[in-house]
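ok here's the first one, seq then struct tokens
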Amino acid sequence: MLGGFSIDSDGNRITEQVKRSSKIWRLLQYLIVYRHKSIPQDELIDVFCEGEQMGNPGSALRTMVYRARTALANGGIPYAEYLILSKNGGYSWNNTANCEIDTEVFEDLHRKAGAETDEDVKLKLLLQAIDLYRGDFLPNSSGDMWVIPLARWYRSLFISCAHEALALLTKKNRAVEAEELCVKSLRVDPFDEDFLIYHLRALLTQGKNSEALIEYNRMEAMYYDIMGVSFSENLRALYNQIQLPTVSEGAPLETVLSEWLVGAGTPGAFYCDLGVFKTLFQIETRSVPRSGRTAYVVRFDTKRDTGAKSGGVMKQLGTIIPSKLRMGDLFTRAGPGQYMLMLHSLTYEDCKMLIDRIMYSLDAKYLKKVKGTSIKAITPITDN
């Protein structure tokens, strides 16, 4: 039932008819999920015939049961006619049949892992449970009211298993397995910060700093665009580790500097994380008095535009800004609807002209999405 509904028996497999997920398969799902009780006819009518105009819902339900038995028989399931029992005005799944259900095994593994004190055994149980979770509970019936709370329940169990397993994998320095689990976990819940932190750490442990940086930037953009929130301080602290350069002991300085130059020649302005932008701003306040040059910070404030199919005004600004700035200028996404630029050796009027060029390049439909722009000269800090 996790990731889709199917029944396997003696080499035969039958799967639900996904088109409209017909009531026959939904009835089978319901009977199997609640297989340890007899389900009254009225309950089944409420679940599967609610809102439909029919003169005899009891007869309609009996027809559904007959068709469900027939579908099982046509699928090569032995004793299909005996798998759905009718007794005392209700229906139930025949539990005398030898039957293993992935959701029940999944819950059992989660329970055993929770009670286990040996870390190796616990991790083994957790990974077995995680492997069983091939997707959400009955995804093709996700619109049914009775499915929704169960789908949330099994997803929460998966997330719990994944958190515990990642903690143990990290502790045991099994970074490759941790990375694989993070990829799966982030597909289930892309906005779980713990999963992202574990993922970035697993990549860093393997020396995959460039991949970690790509993942960091991708997820940061998703947080901004979809949730409208910024990364936490814990995630921002990881950015510094990702960017932290390492120097091989004894390596010639020329070699080190040559390696650092890789990627520096990328056309356009330099994009950096907000934390790096802040640090460079502080450095600029200390250097401006000695250099004699001017420096300004420019900010673009936009309205939230989450419904835009093309990614909205922020996505377009993110493309236009670096193309209009020089290689020595900096910019960062400071919030869900905010970009900040650091410009050197320009006048206030130059900054205004730059803003006009950026605004002119925006699609007309996005012009009203820009709430405002502001310019502020960087005030130097002098020695006391």
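and now the second one, same deal
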Amino acid sequence: MNFLLYGKPGSGKTTAACTTPRRPILIFDIDNKANQMYNIKHLVKSGDVIIKPFSTPLVGDSLRDRALNPDKPMKNQPEGYLEIVDFLSDILEGKTEYSECKTIVIDSFTRLAEHLKRLLIYLRGQGKFGKGDGRGSSKREGDMNWPSWGSYLSNFEELMTNIIALDTMDLILCAHEKSEEEKDQATGVSNILGIWPMVEGAMMKKLSSYFDEVYYLNPKITTQTAEYRFRTRGTLYCCRSSLGLNTHEPADINHCLKKGGVI
């Protein structure tokens, strides 16, 4: 099965991903934090969790060079997204290095998206696309009408279509959250229209459609206790389940699969 887990930083996404019974679990640590997580160290030690580290910077240029030339194209091609898709291609091609793993966790899709954006910004600077809108104006990378957003979406569509087709591994994708808001012109108050995975453009509302189960990490935290929970439905959320779960369940995939009669 494939799971999308999304929520605020610190809401328990990575820990929850490690509750799947399908092990060993391979975490592709794009956020570069899993190695420092104390609460999964025992799983790493036992071999139930294998962490694939990832420390490639968003940009290849030095921070000094980017600070001094913020409006100029990058000099060096960002390699992060290319390394990510090379790794996923190895998985798809059944490389023996990963053949024993039963679940792959991509943590996080939000950071993966940042690497893709940097690559597209670089390619635009090299004249690969995005020359303008055909009317003499030049689009900026922050503009959702910027010509490369078509490439951004198509890259992700191709990526997701391939990785969800894996029949040898389960897939768990973690993502941060993003609120969609609308400001009331009369009162000036912002109303929340939805809480989505933090991905730019049309993929924000499309991402969840690729997954069997979509859970929002909705912890209940007080000064004395912390109860980590999945939200499985709600009008403001894209979460959903076909397992007959309650609106809130413990943030434990094994529990959810048992309750749904899958295991």
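notes on #2: The helical segments are 13-17, 41-46, 63-68, 80-92, 109-125, 149-163, 203-206, 253-259. The longest helix spans residues 109-125.
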